Amino acid sequence: MTKAVIVGGGPNGLAAGLHLARNGVAVQVLEANEDVGGGARSAELTVPGVVHDVCSAFHPMGVGSPFWREVDLTRHGLRWRWPEIDCAHPLDDDSTALLYQSIEQTADGLGADGRRWKAVFGDLARNFDDLGADLLRPIANVPSHPIKLGLFGPRALLPASVLAKAFRTPQGRALFGGIAAHVYTRLDRPLTASLGLMIGASGHRYGWPVAEGGSGAITDALVRALTEAGGSIATGVPVTSRRDIPDADIVMLDLSPAQIVSLYGDALPGRIRSAYEKYRMGSSAFKVDFAVRGDIPWRDARCAAAGTVHLGGTFRQMREAERLRATGVMPERPFTLVGQQYVADPTRSNGQINPIWAYAHVPFGYDGDATEAIVAQIERFAPGFRDIVVARSVTSVADMTEKNRNYIGGDILGGSNAGLQMLLRPRPAIDPYRVGIPGVYICSQSAPPGAGIHGMCGYRAAESALRGLPGSRR
């Protein structure tokens, strides 16, 4: 029987193991930490009975993931829950742009920009499933839907700062800018419109749901599915050298390129080792979880019904903050994301004490304390926030790195999205999952299609591994 070892039990490692196990491979997952899940975990970080997401929180790409739907994680206990409003973006003039799953409702709220919003996102939302089939895989492939992909391409190639000019109102530009800022790099560079378009389109197709009980419920469902398929998981098993990896026909690495070099450097082909050593990190986050009494006192009360609130001000202010961050300067007002998952999933709260999830985009490897900057951004749009905070838990950039070895320098996306690296990660190749050693593959979010709790990096890597087996007809 073919044997596979998965090094790393994050969502992509589990997805790779699950796909292999469903195809008759004996799978063993090795996880260094005491629990699996990576960025898809939950914990009582502040007050007993109050559940916080450790990293990933909202899942517009997850609920529509082709692999998650194929394995039907809901059959294994996963339940999605949707907020009334997917995302709110307040401005200093007390106006707020609101993103709903309904593109019509979103457009109605944008006034003069309503028609423009539908022109930018309408066809992408309608065609999202077909687009996803082509975009959630390596770029160097023959597209299954070339016409739809061709319509997406010209918009995706633009800098976010150029596409933002399609909107005439501050609210329209800010709403698009906050979504585009998830690209986590300068917004005035080519390709930076692409992720905003995909997240926006997936939101209009599937919404921005949360997992009932916390993002760890996604991991729990994956573990159940993997176990049912015959796979096994060992935790508390760090892999620091190749000697730590049992003999196997397939080795899947849910690791960063730098970690792969540390394990296999002398065995990697020179061109691949060079590419991995040049691979750039750069998407650092500083996170604070709050336990609050009641709801955040937003100046615009509608924000209290939003699952996510983007705090960055105008598009121009966000563009400048991301420019400073990318050049190593901590902005006075960093782009900050606030999660109010409990409005969709009340099971996370304890009575009147609710969990608030917040993180700021900070310079790579930032060694300062961004807590006050995050609090100030919330107070900017919700005066009195400090007064309702019962407890808080701070996760600095250094803490990120310590708790998850893939988060080098606090990079939660597995690598910078600047330039062509967004498209050609971790290296330019027809099959970028192969590391140049027979039977060894990279399956982390540093591989295509990149970050997100969608499992597609692991699934695509496992497909590559299955094709590489003797006698394969895939």
UniProtKB/TrEMBL annotation:
InterPro entries associated with the record: FAD/NAD-bd_sf
Pfam families, per the entry: NAD_binding_8
Top-level taxon: Bacteria
SUPFAM superfamilies to which the protein is assigned, alphabetical: FAD/NAD(P)-binding domain
Gene3D superfamilies linked to this entry: FAD/NAD(P)-binding domain (3.50.50.60)
Protein name: NAD(P)/FAD-dependent oxidoreductase
Organism: Gordonia liuliyuniae
